[in-house]
Amino acid sequence: MSGSRLAHNYHPLPVVVASAEGAWVTDVEGRRYLDLLAGYSALNFGHRHPALVQAATAQLGRVTLTSRAFDNDRLEPFATALADLCGKDLVLPMNTGAEAVETGIKVARAWGYRVKGVPQGRARIVVAHGNFHGRTTTIVGFSDDPEAHDGFGPYGPGFAAVPFGDADAVAAAIDDDTVAVLIEPIQGEAGVVIPPEGYLRRVREITRERGVLLVADEIQSGLGRVGETFACDREGVVPDVYLLGKALGGGILPVSAVVADADVLGVIRPGEHGSTFGGNPLSAAVGLRVVELLATGEFQKRAALLGAHLAERLEPLVGNGVTAVRVAGLWAGVDIDPAVGTGREVAESLMALGVLVKDTHGQTIRIAPPLVVRATEIDWAVEQLQRVLTR
Ligand SMILES: Cc1ncc(COP(=O)(O)O)c(C=O)c1O
Predict the structure, then answer these.
(1) In the structure, which protein residues have their CB atom closer than 6 angstroms to any atom of ligand 1?
(2) 261 vs 267: CA distance, rounded Å
(3) What is the pTM (predicted TM-score) of this model?
(4) d(CA 301, ligand 1 centre) in Å
(5) What are the alphabetically sorted keywords of the record (predicted)?
């Protein structure tokens, strides 16, 4: 067999990265690119942040894997720091984002049966149209993105989808068997879709009144991206369950977690859930340092300031090759005017000018630089976008 030996589950831009530092990557031919994707927010602290590399390197010299059959001396400090950051009691460590979502679903169902008293096998979870929570068979079953969903059934029952941003629809969808509302506070893969002001607060009130858990998937929106620790903070909302991933691993390795109070997460008993790699000492050492970086508040502040700067630069593009711009912290969805081209074509043109972005859903590009990016670099990147749009 000749050609690539990789399965065709991705269609990457034709760039082959060989090294990276901060907000920049370098390809195999020595060309440099500003990384405005940041690993879908996994690289919030930039490529190879020195404190994170140091934490990983030091841990590599001690112990990297124990499995949860034994404890390791990094896990409790990581769990304590992360629980404190979230203001919650307990942490259940996993690896990928999809695993955190699956774990959240299991926790919500177990809570429903054991605490709320829902009859076995009947638990329902309300989700939002346009959601993206990962790629497992359960999760794609309640996606309405044909690419993610179609052709992978049979799909698991127990999910009801309602329009994103419509709190009344959430209220109407809740019945006696509903155990949770699972939402992204801002929908990343959908194109940085920001719900109307007050939506999260209203959903929080509804879920509290109706005895249903609010599960916030902050895997892409959380950990500094929007100028706060969590996107829920924008409305002063505290969910019952945080689902975290991506940046929790510092762009070094997959680290995810479910974080909740003991009356919720405490329902899971030994032997009912786990992962060989979840909570391994290397992940825990890196995750602990990530939480320490976030605890300073410095990255949240940077994202807020630079985000305002990014919004100022992007907004004038509306009507000039761009049909809409949505910005939350250092995170933007930019809808490209079809007269200019597709999102993919714009991404390819930007690549030729030294800027890496990723298109989503045809006409949208997402701008999500590492939070260590400089204002001057944002200016330069938006200038390149302007060049592409006015060609
Ligand atoms: C909101 C959200 N949840 C879950 C996931 C899945 O994470 P992973 O790719 O690590 O499984 C993603 C990935 O893009 C995401 O954006």
Answers:
(1) 40, 96-98, 101, 132-134, 184, 188-189, 217, 219-220, 245
(2) 10
(3) 0.98
(4) 24
(5) Aminotransferase, Pyridoxal phosphate, Transferase
